[in-house]
Specification:
transmembrane; 0% strand; membrane; transmembrane helix
């Protein structure tokens, strides 16, 4: 992986994690459903942008 790719992925990672944090964890009460959806979307990001088969568990 080149340095440029690493920088691009790290920027995307922090952007997505910030967006997910605001969407699910700072928007009203934190419910079990919000926690599950946050984890699902975060793992989807890891699988898409970092490659590989990422599983929850």
């Amino acid at each position: 992986m080149s340095e440029g790719d690493a920088v691009r992925i790290s920027r995307m990672f922090f952007s997505v994690m910030t967006m997910l944090t605001f969407r699910y964890m700072l928007n009203g009460d934190l419910t079990e459903t919000k926690k599950k959806v946050f984890c699902t979307e975060a793992l989807s990001f890891f699988g898409t942008f970092l490659g590989g088969d990422v599983k929850n568990g």
